[in-house]
Each structure stands twice: as structure tokens, then as C-alpha cells.
Amino acid sequence: MRTLFVAGNWKMNPTTLEAAVKLAEEVKAGVGQAVNVRVAICPPSLYLYRMDEVLAGSPIGLGAQNMNAKPEGAFTGELSGPMLVDAGCTHVILGHSERRHGHGETDDLVNGKLIAALESRLLPIVCVGETRLERESDMTEDVVGRQLEHSLAGLTPEQMGGVVLAYEPVWAIGTGLTASPTQAQAVHAFIRRHLAAKFGEATASRVVVQYGGSVKPDNAAELLACPDIDGALVGGASLKAADFLGIFHAGQSVVAQGKA
Ligand code: PEP
Asked: Which residues line ligand 1 (CB under 6 A)?
């Protein structure tokens, strides 16, 4: 059984702590004590300690958007797993396409961060996804398969069971273009098959695989109803509480209609 999981990636927004607190308070009020759909917010790291205070008493998880693979040391500008845990984090996004493409993160680097996150007992959300050119060249499965192979290298099936994946086609991120439910489900099913071949059926059936790429309240239910889509990683729409809660409510309605 996989519980739907909706996470908000706030990226480098909002620009003041005051606005971040207001957004987190609104999300907290909207989610209440509901646990039939899991929720996490991933604000800028500068706000994490304060966000942990705001989220006290709520089931909402707190995630960072990146971390360094080393626990401490001379790494100017970086943050480590132990630091994120100290700030109250439960989750960390790894290998987001904006880091892969904008900051040169390789699958091997993501793999090192993943192992470090698990050692820190953070729940990693590992992102994979193809560019538009790769999709148009019919390379989606090659690219996603390679990202999975290398980013998840060395994990035991037990460790894999504690990792969340996010399929985020790069061409759908922040563009308003969304993969159709059919397109997204096909890649999610491919990811599930890949996990089964590498980690076994039992593990593959436990791993939560989120979809990300212009998810909005009005397209969320259709995506979340797909059998292998277990949640959403939400960028732009996570910056307005009403929109993010709309996606959360879409998840709840999908659960109410019988999806675990
Ligand atoms: C993201 O950056 O993870 C994302 C899915 O962004 P958006 O929802 O804005 O496409």
C-alpha cells in the first residue's frame, strides 16, 4: 500500500521570512491533522528552523531542496544532512532538474547525496526526467533508466523502500505544459518495472513515485488517479496556499474514490 504524497518545492521563494511563515501557516491550517494524503513543504533553507516551529503539531513534513554529501567541513556555501536534521527537516529533494541542468549535478553526485541523506535518516525525494529534445528523440526510457541506475546505485532493497522518486519531465517544469496522464503513467510504469528488476517486486510496489511538472488543482486529480502515480512534486502551484491545498484535496478525493 502506498500513501499519496504531495510535496511543495518552493525553490527560491518567497523573498521574505514573513511571507514564508504566512504561506506555511495557511498550508498547516488547510491540511489540519489529515494523514490520508501525506504532505511536505520544502522552503528555502534559510527559513527551515522557523518553518519547523510553524509546523509544530502538524503532520506536514519539512524538506530541504538540496544537501551536500559530506557531513561537515570546508565546503563554502553548502549545508549537510546533520544540519538539515538539526533544523527540523524530515525530507530532502535531490537531483532536481534545476540542479542537474543549472548546477551540473551528475547521477554520481546525486547518488552520494542520497546515501548521505539515508545515513542522516532524511527521507530523500530523488528527481529524474527527460528534456524535451530527449522525449522527441524517443529517449525518455533510456534517460530515465540511466538516471535511476546511477542515482540509486548501491542501495539495498530495504534502503530503496525508504526513498521517494519524482518523475519530472524537464519540459513540463514551470512551463505550463503537463505530461498527459497517459504519458506520465507510461513513464511511472517503466520506473516501477525498473525498480522491480533491480530491487524486487515487493520493494517496487512500496516505492512512492511522485509526478512533477506544472501540476495544478485542475489537473491533479486525473494525474493522481493513475495507478503508478503516487503523489505530486509541486513547484509554482505550491506558492499559493489555495492552489497547493487544491492539489492536496484532489489527492484526498482520489483516495476517497478508492485509491490507497
Ligand atoms: C518542480 O520544480 O519540481 C516543479 C514540478 O515545478 P512546476 O510545478 O512549477 O512545474
From this structure: 9, 168, 173-174, 212-215, 233-237
